Amino acid sequence: MTILAIETSCDETSVAIVRDGKDILSNVLLSQERVHGRFGGVVPELASRQHLEVLDDLVIKAVKKASVGWKEIRGIAVTYGPGLIGALLVGVSYAKALAYALDIPLLGVNHLEGHLFAPLFEYPEIKFPTVALIVSGGHTHLFLVKKVGIYKLLGKTRDDAAGEALDKGARMMGLGFPGGPILDQLSSQGGTPKIDFPRAYLGPDSLDFSFSGVKTALRDYLGKNVYSKEELENQLPDLASSFLQAVVDVLVEKGLQAAKRSGVSQIVVGGGVSANSLLRKQMFQKGSEERIDPFFPSPFLSTDNAGMVGLVGCYLFQKGIYSSFDLNPKANLSLSEENLAF
Ligand code: KG4
Ligand code: ZN
User: Fold this and answer.
1) Cβ(91) – ligand 1 distance below 6 Å
2) What is the Cα–Cα distance from 248 to 276, expressed in whole angstroms?
3) Is the bond leading into 105 cis (omega within 30 degrees of zero)?
4) DSSP readout, 123-182?
5) What is the mean pLDDT of the chain?
């Protein structure tokens, strides 16, 4: 079964053609980094407008690149939450119109399930139950995945998502947007994590996260120790690696704790921050000490893309599941919730 998938939940417009849940024939993407960069964060209204402007072209590109005919496409899968409501609305409305015009079924896909499917697709050896850490600009969630479709929330952030904290921290350091990949690069270029920023573990039993404290600590540090642009520039590699280290330590510690407590020997990591090299390195190092195997998607499938939406779409379509045309986007859709679209 060949399907077309659409992702517009935040600031990436993406369209993919996916066959049988096994082949991503095309996965085209247009990032809005340049549109939002000068504001230091995603501006929801601009994101919706930008999706609207480019979606049509990307659909045509994805179909051409996959070398499929329109008649081969048997379903349209679209992210219907969680995300920015206006941005989701563009994708969902477009998907409805296309499914109606082609007279094929429509399916609403949970974005978080997409992030989870990316590593599941690349590593068929993953066994269930497993623990999953979804860590992105909007989410930092730990799930027990009993099997595909059955998720138990084990913990989540009480304030900022890890990616959001990295982006905001980078902004305080005068870096661009999104800050996560820039901090990644800076710390890989030889920065030493010598500033001891706080790690919030929230008590021995908690699998929740909190990243607001580390942001405040960074702001205080900058206010007390950095008086000029030159000083900031000199300290940037160390600042970046110290800040990143504080965030990564908590992600690795809680992720491995969740696996140990759930009695599983695997952890699946997905979402934009899973592209981070320090997180990958440390999860593998500490994981091997604890005999827990981590699985990370390749970088292109870590950040937002429609390929991952198409993988979920194929899986559900093949089970005969689809949505009605009154599908509505849900900004706060969660993963443990029953799939209300079906
Ligand atoms: O999954 P994603 O593309 O969008 C959301 O669903 O939020 O994640 C975006 C987040 C941003 O906060 C970005 O800074 C972060 O992922 N990110 C990274 C890296 N690449 C993307 N953070 C750290 N290191 C990276 N290499
Ligand atoms: Zn995402």
Assistant:
1) no
2) 9
3) no
4) -TT--SSEEEEEESSS-EEEEEEEETTEEEEEEEBSS--HHHHHHHHHHHTT--SSHHHH
5) 95
Please report the atom of ligand 1 found closest to the CA of residue 302.
1
Give the strand order in the sheet containing 293-295: 150-156, 140-147, 130-135, 266-270, 293-295
What distance in Å separates the CA atoms of residue 166 and residue 240, rounded to the nearest whole number? 9
Beta carbons within 10 angstroms of residue 325's beta carbon: 9
What is the rounded CA–CA span in Å between residue 330 and residue 338? Answer: 13
Asked whether 165 lines ligand 1 (CB < 6 A), one says no
Q: How far is the CA of 248 from the centre of ligand 1 (A)?
A: 13
Domains of the chain by start residue, with CATH = 2-115+304-337 (3.30.420.40), 120-300 (3.30.420.40)
pLDDT at 128 over 80: yes
> What proportion of the chain, given as a percentage, has pLDDT over 90?
90
Average pLDDT over residues 216-244: 93
Closest ligand 1 atom to residue 162 Cα is: 12
The DSSP code for 47 is H
Which residues face 79 on adjacent strands? Answer: 109
Task: Return d(Cα 259, Cα 290) in angstroms, integer.
Answer: 10
Q: pLDDT band for position 341 (50/70/90)? A: very low
